[in-house]
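F.,

This is the one I mentioned.
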């Protein structure tokens, strides 16, 4: 803490380490030593570009089911609405691969993929692509390196996603009679 004298007051400069702070409203309480003088300074911690799914916390938990244990999933759904976003952020903080940084890249990327999958993979029978089997693969592994589609008469449609990056897998989806994409095969490349 640094104090800079001014004409009538002192200016105090402080650094606060907020790298692990959950976005929200806070109060800083300053107490003058050897007196009863106090000063309360309200402030807010917020992210530059928060993942849009966090604004609907129940839905955020739904799309997180791919990375949660059954117990974690149930606990987050049972968390009161007013506390759920903070609980979600705490979960991601515990699973942050770069905890020394201010920004949780893994969480932001996960929700970016979920947001993209929601519309990009939507069909008439699966209006929320993020909650589909293709959505699960897209959210967990990202954009496929290559997609092949096969439509033959009297056979179910087939879509094959190949990941030639570090994932090195091929996912085969068949279109069911109800028009849903069902994951039927996963092969290593």
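My design for it:
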């Amino acid at each position: 803490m640094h104090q800079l004298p001014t004409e009538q007051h002192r200016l105090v400069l402080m650094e606060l380490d907020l790298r692990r702070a959950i976005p929200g409203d806070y109060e800083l309480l300053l107490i003058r030593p050897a007196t009863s003088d106090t000063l309360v300074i309200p402030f807010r911690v917020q992210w530059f570009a928060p993942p849009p799914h966090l604004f609907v916390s129940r839905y955020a938990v739904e799309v997180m089911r791919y990375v949660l244990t059954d117990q974690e999933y149930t606990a987050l759904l049972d968390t009161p609405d007013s506390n759920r976003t903070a609980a979600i952020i705490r979960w991601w903080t515990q699973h942050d691969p770069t905890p020394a940084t201010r920004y949780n890249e893994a969480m932001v990327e996960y929700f970016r993929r979920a947001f993209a999958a929601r519309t990009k993979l939507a069909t008439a029978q699966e209006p929320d692509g993020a909650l589909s089997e293709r959505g699960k693969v897209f959210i967990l592994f990202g954009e496929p390196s290559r997609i092949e589609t096969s439509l033959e008469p009297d056979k179910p449609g087939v879509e094959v996603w190949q990941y030639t990056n570090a994932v090195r897998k091929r996912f085969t989806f068949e279109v069911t009679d109800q028009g849903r994409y069902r994951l039927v095969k996963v092969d290593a490349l």
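The mean pLDDT is 87.

Talk soon.
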